[in-house]
Structure formats: structure tokens, C-alpha cells
Amino acid sequence: MNKRITSAFAAAAATALLVTGCGGSDDSDHADHSSESAAASTTDAAATTAGAAVAAPTTAELTDSLTLIVAPDVDAATKAAEIENGQERIANLEQMTAALANYGEITFDVSEPTVEGETATAAVAIATPRGTAAPSPNTWVLIDGKWKVSDASACALLAMGQAPCV
After folding, report:
1. Domain enclosing residue 138, as ranges
2. Rounded-to-integer distance, Cα 143 and Cα 130, Å
3. pTM for the full model?
4. For the chain, how many structural domains are there in total?
5. Which one of 39, 40, 58, 61 is least enclosed by Cβ atoms within 10 Å?
6. pLDDT tens digits for 90-117?
7. Is 59 part of any domain?
């Protein structure tokens, strides 16, 4: 069974990365956060200078968020805190964590991100015991001052871990 999961994860990793790369913008996945941002108090809006750019997250921050999501020794609630709409992905995270329990080390090579508004995009190569997938774009969204893995990118990662979003 573990060999089947391992092989399926490696195949899904390559497929999901290709699909994620072809999926275009996932702005619709976090449109509700734009509404939340728009609902911020006028005091906060007045304090922000017009046209001020959002500070880009570091590659280390983005790498750490992905590494935490696949860590076998981290609980689903902690992982969910790193993901946009993470509470909706608790069952998926638990399923992926169980599937990857004996899989081996998964690492991420994240390129320098670009930021447009409240969305950061960076190419990510995923290395597993079965090999390294070609880099593909992943996105993070700024929510309450914290960069979180976008729902679309999280779902691609969960699909690779045999826990696809429905």
C-alpha cells in the first residue's frame, strides 16, 4: 500500500504542478478576502499611504509555509493556519499527513516572489524521494498581515498527497 501511495504521490506531484502552472490566476479563490480588506476601518485606510506596495514575503517564509503543510509531525489545525480557507481543508490535511507518514523528506525550492496587491507568486520545485518536479507557479495571499498559501496552491499540494480538495 505504501508503494502505491508513494508512486501515486510522485505522479500526482508532476501532474498537479503542470496543472497549477496552466491554471492561470487564482484571484477568484481569495476574492472574499478582498471584501474583508475593503471592510477594514477607514482609520486603517487613512493610515495607509496611497499606492504603498505590500512588502514581499521572503523565500524562506514561503518555503517554511509549504514545508509545514507536508510535515508528518504537525497537526492539521496548525497546518490549516498556513492556508487560505484552511479550516475547510482540515480533513484533507489529516488525510495527506497520514498518507505521507512514511513517505520520506519533501523539500521545496521557492524562487523570489513577485507581489501584486495582496497576492504573491513564486515558482516552486518540489523534491521528493522519487525525484524533483519542474518548478511551477504557486500563490500566497495576504490575510490579516500574514502570507498564507492560496487555496488553489494548497489544493494542488493536497492532491499530490492523495487528499484532493472536492
Report:
1. 2-160
2. 34
3. 0.71
4. 1
5. 39
6. 999 999 999 998 899 999 999 999 999 9
7. yes
